[in-house]
Design a protein that fits this description.
- The complex is a heterodimer of chains A (432) and B (324).
- Chain A is α/β, with parallel strands linked by helices and 432 residues long.
- Chain A contains 13 helices and 17 strands.
- Chain A has 2 domains: 275 residues, Rossmann fold (3-Layer(aba) Sandwich); 63 residues, no CATH class.
- Helices cover 28% and strands 20% of the residues of chain A.
- Chain A is globular, with a radius of gyration of 21 Å.
- With 324 residues, chain B is an all-alpha fold.
- Chain B has one domain: Ammonium transporter fold.
- Chain B is 57% helix and 1% strand.
- Chain B has a two-stranded antiparallel ribbon.
- Classes of the chains: A alpha/beta (432), B mainly alpha (324).
- The complex binds iron/sulfur cluster (2 copies).
- The site of one iron/sulfur cluster has 16 residues of chain A, from helix 12 and helix 13.
Chain lengths: 432, 324
Amino acid sequence: MSLTFKGGLHPEENKITAKSPIEVMPEPATVAIAMSQHIGAPCIPTVKKGDYVYKGQTVGEGQGGLTCPVHSSISGTVIGIEDRVGAFGQKVTHVVIENDFKSELLPEIKPNSKSLEESTFDEIVEIIKSAGIAGLGGATFPTHFKVASAKGKGEKLIINCCECEPYITANHRLMLEKPEDIINGVKVVMKALDLKACHIAIEDNKKDAIKVMQEKVGNENGIDIKVLKTKYPQGDERQLIYAIDKIEIPTGKLPADVGRIVLNAETSAAIWRAFHDGIPLVDRVMTVTGDCVAQPKNLIVPLGTSISDIISYCGGYTGEIEKIISGGPMMGMAQWDETAPVIKGTASILCFGKKNKTQPSENCIHCGKCVGSCPMHLMPLYLASFAKQGDWESCREFDVLSCVECGCCTYQCPGNVPIVQYIRTAKGKLRK
Amino acid sequence: MGLLKVSASPHIRHEDTTRVLMSDVILAMIPLLIWGAYVFGLRVLTITAVSIVSCVVFEALFNLILKKKIPVGDLSAVVSGMLLAFNLPATIPLWIPVIGAFFAMVVVKGLFGGLGKNFMNPVLAARAFLFGSWPSHMTTYSAPLERLSAFGKIDAVSSATTLTELKNGALPSEDIFDLFIGNMAGCIGEVSAMLILAGGIYLLVRKVITWQIPVAFIATVALLTFAFAPDGVSNLSFMMAELFSGGVMLGAVFMATDYVTSPVTAKGRLIYGIGCGALTVFIRFFGGYPEGVSFAILIMNLFVWYLDRATKPRKFGGIRNAKA
Ligand code: SF4
Ligand code: SF4
């Protein structure tokens, strides 16, 4: 029996690219590095127009602890510092770099001379921090901060390889093609925090990956594979910890408060590359897919590459495009325009054609399907109707602030009520 | 590059819209209609057609006059029309379903705000209204297999339903198997327990309904009638006769599961089903009428909002774990 949680649902998987090996996308002519690719203080450019930058060179840094530096993903010349609309719809400063196609790596970058055994907590956290690693599952929480704040509290590491969103196959392919990187990253974090146990959590629709990971892990001390039922949103940290350990993170607390630290599979691999080779986060694996792109692929893409460059590399559109989504179909963000660059959190780019138009919204028929599918055990229909009436206090009373915006309720709703939109409005009002 | 369409997540939807769910309900009821026509004659089809057309037309007119969007596309008026007909005897004059449809669609559903807002099941409210206004029309049943023609004059002798016998504390003369397959007098769509259960299973498999209401409803009626069977009759036969007679099956599977007028939580649905079952038996045993299903459901309808609130699930993370 696979482990699971209560609520949630199983949308059509559409993992069209599950069998496509990861390809390395050639570098584009220009990249635009966003100064805010993570949760926390945005970065300030550390270069100016006209500067030459190496691949892997820091081009932006932020103030304080909760931030994450950004690096150039190519070598070339800075041709502009521009304000543009970022992936989340807000204005973000971008460092635009023109490629010299020499792929000149920053000379200071070299493999680590210290072994893992000799490395200390502080050294490892510093490596993760200066490599600019943030949660690559899409949440983009600065990883060094997560690791540092788990010091003394963490009992167990959980590697999230669920990839519960439909379409996305980036983690799946990474497990098949670079399992050692993921496992080595695990060892780095376990060493830093002196952890004795790690679960690698994989959904049961990825049988081949489970097998590969099981083989690679072998009898490694303290590391094991946990097989989870394929269900959305299994990749949500709360549901993941619950499925494995049957512990609910109390409202308002973090995984560290229950002794858990959860990292995405690719984040773990990035930690290993930073630790072992000294390479900062300059590219990532992403799935480019949907019914409107000619050749769906899994790609390694330099950060800052524009969506349109990626799509032309994948053979362009096959029809009239309706929507481009950065991230999965359940929680991803629809993009304003194709020139937007990809960032650390971009796990996939979905191209949906006209036939995916959503119907106009109708009435709530009180069917209760949203209640049954809510992984946070809320009553979405009432949240939506209170929000519609502007009754924010009732929204609070019905725990609107616990909603994780997973989208299960709206997905399931036969009346096509835009529940999540109502909930976002209510949360916005209550947080003011 | 042109600007793209931006809309909020989630970007995909389950294919079961209200219309799809209602089509499933209609599909599940078609065998009942065919069986009704087989047992009581083609007049059943005429009544059902009149009822459906009236429901659809009244709803459309009502929305037209109030300049609301016409929601006929969601098929719920068709479902109401079928259910209304199913709750009438085959001898009913054809103007009665028209009045029933007006009451259901305009008075109950329309004036209380359309699908999703009315607090009483419109079909059952209409049935209760018709019952109160024209009791003799509503209780003149034709005998099974004495088929009435589609439009002709009705000269069938009225036949008592098994409920009357049960009310008097005796077992009906029909054998249980006839009651189960539906070879007996009664309302158009309620006689065949077998086909209703088959429809219920289909709706469960298609996830149109959940098990809690029908199971709790039927189990409660079974338990109570078994425990309180009158002296001198077999408890088991009495229980089965009670279950397969009158509207218990149709009520439990198709009427009490009406979304709008039933609770949304699993726990709420269980309590609701138990309440419907207990009230049904109570009215059948102690009430003035032999049948109690419609009134039981209508009474429970009044508690839906309260049940929803009272069974609000504990939110995830809402209590402290031992370990946290
Ligand atoms: S979006 Fe919020 S309310 Fe809707 S199912 Fe997810 S957690 Fe529940
Ligand atoms: S799923 Fe939609 S129609 Fe059903 S109760 Fe929830 S909001 Fe209402």
